[in-house]
Amino acid sequence: MLSFIVRRFGLLIPTFFGVTLLTFALIRLIPGDPVEVMMGERRVDPQMHAAAMHRLGLDKPLPQQYLDYIGKLAKGDLGESLRTRESVWHEFLTLFPATLELAIAALLFAGTLGLLAGVIAALKRGSLFDHGVMGLSLAGYSMPIFWWGLILIMFFSVSLGWTPVSGRIDLLYDVEPVTGFMLIDTLLGDEEGAFLDALRHLILPAIVLGTIPLAVIARMTRSAMLEVLREDYVRTAKAKGLSPSRVVFIHGLRNALIPVLTVFGLQVGTLLAGAVLTETIFSWPGIGKWLIESIGARDYPVVQNGILLIACLVILVNFAVDVFYGLANPRIRHQS
Amino acid sequence: MTSLTTPLPVDQSLLYPSPLKEFWRAFSHNKGALAGLLFMLVIVFCALFAPWVAPYSPSEQFRDFLLTPPAWLEGGQGRFLLGTDELGRDLLSRLIHGSRLSLIIGLSSVVMSLIPGIVLGLVAGFFPRLIGPAIMRLMDIMLALPSLLLAVAIVAILGPGLINTVIAIAVVSLPSYVRLTRAAVIGELNRDYVTAARLAGAGLPRLMFITVLPNCMAPLIVQATLSFSSAILDAAALGFLGLGVQPPTPEWGTMLASARDYIERAWWVVSLPGLTILLSVVAINLMGDGLRDALDPKLKNAA
Fold first, then answer.
1. Domain at A151, CATH number
2. Cβ atoms of residues B50 and B99 within 8 Å
3. ipTM for the complex?
4. Does the UniProt entry include the keyword GTP-binding (chain A) (predicted)?
5. Does residue A250 belong to any structural domain of this protein?
6. At what angle do helices A194-229 and A254-282 cross, to 10 degrees?
7. A16 lies in some domain
8. Measured between CB atoms, does B230 come within 8 Å of chain A?
């Protein structure tokens, strides 16, 4: 098992360097030169221009620039934002819990509902419920989620007034950021109603972000369950006289979960991309909104290293999924 | 013994059907796929003949009819079937003209990623020692970034606009073509017919494009359909984020972005563009499912 993990980890290294090459190239591919772009429309005095190029290290040969970049990364220096003068790493750390909280809520929503719908659809194959689930999941994974968010806001927030339109919590509450997770922080604090308010802020964004994973998980669970229910060991379990729920959940679902979990892992990338849209619609102060705002403001250090950080996150999650997969399925572990 | 005097009528079911007929039989069996095809034909028709189909020009502003509701609602006008937007432009006309952009973006980005994807995939399959793994590592790196984020990053460099949107989406969907082609090529290379072609003296380009490639097309056609639908979604998402096609061009996602401010008083400017995107994407996905079942029965339960 250990050698499997080490081998998989070894594959991460070239991928990591590849991503750094990509983010390194990002800044150099901007038409014109970065200093002019960062200065905007103003005319730049040539002397200042040269000084800025020198300060940013852009006057050195390219390989030297790349090595400098890697060296800085190795020291944990991700540069600082041009807008706020804060370090990129620090900004990432403050905003990331918001995205993580949203993503976890979305996955919980998608996972529970998707597994349930998928199992029932598989058990009642060909029924109205089955067709309903398949139809809805087709609509779900075809969904332009930025529009879906607007529609939900229009219905639940504007017409019914049930949920707030944007943000993580009402301005009335002054929550001490201890963990960065609003739901936990409001519980730790003693303000009455703060937790419920945070929860109400979270519901719609979580549903919007969870919609595509929900559709994919429901479909995947259904087809995996259909496959498993045909297996001999399920027939044996039934023949032994086990209760139907035991057959379905212990003998069936547990084996159907392996492909479903892989899909779960693959959805993390989708989730982060969806977070960009969801956070923009709901003004959710997470890394997705941060990245889009930085692009709008031409804050290149943030764009460059924000993308690097997100890519690393995806790579690590995929690695974790692989390891987990290896644990669950020995056949994968022993492949060369 | 009597010999048969009348020749037996040829049993039609024993004749080998033409591949096209066989494909159509399987495809038309799938009702969803047919519905999708029908819907897409309507969209394609609208796109091709937009200036004649649309009642007005997409940029004509009727200043006396700002935010008119659709015709069937109170206050609606018969001349503006789906109502007007915040500048008094006819929504139906803008949606019809928007179909042009979505189809152009979808089509050109598919072509722009399909062709290099096939070439890279063939090269990766034919040269498994050095070039192949190098190409595949590169594709892994591209897959490490969520597709929309990579597209956002590319547009951030190149600047927003129609052509850059197409480039970004094409780059993003490249890896899946390369992987699919390579996997199919590796499966085919050990077949006898390839060995036979090699022995007969077929050169490398002939082996690649004429011998092997046609046998790898089924999954590629399916993937092309699916990436067509995700191209439309991604283009709309970029437009919505303000990074895609710029207003006043009537792109569906861009229309949604400018409609956001009227969410409280004009539901139609928000709902209708998104509904159009959703229906088109559903239609294409239905067609893709039908194509997959018809072309490649092995894949039926894979996705």
1. 1.10.3720.10
2. yes
3. 0.82
4. no
5. yes
6. 140
7. no
8. no
Mapped onto helix, strand or coil, the DSSP state of residue B1 is coil
In angstroms, the CA B221 to CA B118 distance is 11
- Hey, is the C-beta of B156 within 8 angstroms of any chain A C-beta? yes
Question: Is residue A148 located within the same domain as residue A240?
Answer: yes
Residues of B in Cβ contact (< 8 Å) with A147: 240, 256, 270, 273-275, 277-278
Are A58 and A125 in a shared domain? no
Residues of B in contact with A273 (CB under 8 A): 146-149
Same domain, A112 and A201: yes
A227 lies in the same domain as A121: yes
Q: Where are the alpha helices (DSSP H) in chain B?
A: 19-29, 31-48, 50-53, 91-126, 131-144, 147-158, 162-189, 192-199, 204-206, 217-240, 252-259, 267-295
Question: Which of A12, A47, A77 finishes a domain?
Answer: A77
Tell me the pLDDT tens digit for each residue of B249-269: 888 888 888 888 888 888 888
For residue A231, which amino acid is it? E
DSSP A80: B
- Facing residue for A144 by CB, picked from B138, B237, B263: B237
User: SS3 string of B56-99?
Assistant: CCCCCCCCCCCCCCCCCCCCCCCCCCCCECCCCCEHHHHHHHHH
Regarding whether A51 and A105 lie in a shared domain, the answer is: no
Give the integer Cα–Cα distance in Å for B93 and B59. 9
Q: pTM value?
A: 0.84
A285 plus A212 within the same structural domain:
yes
Residues A44, A158, single domain; the answer is no
**Judging by beta carbons within 10 Å of its beta carbon (0-12, 13-18, 19+), is residue A178 exposed, middle or buried?**
exposed
Percent of chain B with pLDDT over 70: 92
Question: Which DSSP category does A253 fall into?
Answer: I
Q: Who's near B132: CB < 8 A, 6+ residues apart?
A: B123, B124, B125, B126, B182
Chain B residues whose beta carbon lies within 8 Å of the beta carbon of residue A310 = 145-146, 149
- Reported as a single tens digit per residue, the pLDDT across A145-181 is 989 999 998 888 888 888 887 887 777 777 777 777 8
User: Taking residues B210-230, what's their average pLDDT?
Assistant: 87
Contacts of B236 (CB under 8 A, 6+ apart): A144, A146, B102, B244, B251, B252, B253, B256, B277
DSSP 8-state secondary structure symbol assigned to residue A171: T
Q: Is residue A2 part of a domain?
A: no
A172 shares its domain with A257? yes
Give a yes or no: residue A24 inside a domain.
no
Q: Domain residues for A61?
A: 31-77
Closest to A33 measured CA to CA, from A63, A59, A71: A59
What is the band of A229 on the pLDDT scale with cuts at 50, 70, 90? confident
Give the count of domains, chain A. 2
Q: What is the pLDDT of residues A64-93, one digit of tens each?
A: 888 888 888 888 888 888 778 888 898 898
Side chain identity at B113, as an amino acid letter? S
